[in-house]
Amino acid sequence: MSNSIIRQSYVIPADDFSLAGEASSCVKKMLNQLGVPPQTVKKVAIAMYEAEINAVIHAGGGTADVEIGGGKIIVTISDEGPGIPDLELAMQEGYSTAPDSIREMGFGAGMGLPNIKRYADKLDIKTEVGKGTIVEITVFL
Amino acid sequence: MKVSEIIGILDAELLTGEENLDMDIEHACGSDLMSDVMAFVKENVVLLTGLVNPQVVRTAEMMDIKVIVFVRGKVPDEKLVQFAKEKGITILITKHPMFIACGKLYCAGITGRGVWD
């Protein structure tokens, strides 16, 4: 890989759960094409996918910005949703505020944020009630 | 164990993904919760699930899972099968319920588990 930094942005569409994951899929493909090691690609793909699903479930979509270079991959998922009132609680495995309709789709088991933490090398979440949430996932190359 | 052997053990039907029939499977994950699947890190995995929607295929894609078995007679629609085909993921369907399907594979030697930290 060259030393230049690659930047890509994606829109995460609202209210279409069947489309959720499209941005993560594109990023996974791109990382594979760039020759990033498979284990690293998997870490980024899973963490980003969970964050993307969260944005669809809780915030009516958002944006995903990906930056590759300087020895790391940074994925930033931003939304203008309701924000997270108690982040510590939200980070606990099993805690979820997702509606039943989402549980029926196989998500909303309170594993999203813990999974993101599990696969990210560094995780930074900025959230404000009524304003939105920014999830920054860093995976080192 | 090869994917073709799994088809025999589960009396399964192949809907797409003939190209993976010779692939070796060492580990299995049975779950209807996709986030639980994503907490599971292993290679050469077969995913057994009773959940039938596009996010199952999406989850498999992210996890590099190449084989999905839909249990208890659930049949995915053509759109899902096409989606899996595009991703190079094999779709199998079996009439066995989850417990029996997992048990049959376990008895046949797929005893590998995932890693929970």
From TrEMBL, chain B:
Report domain DRTGG positions: 5-96
The organism's superkingdom is given as Bacteria
Sorted alphabetically, which SUPFAM superfamilies does this protein's record hold? HprK N-terminal domain-like
| Name the UniProt record assigns to this protein | DRTGG domain-containing protein
Biological source species: Acetivibrio clariflavus (strain DSM 19732 / NBRC 101661 / EBR45) (Clostridium clariflavum)
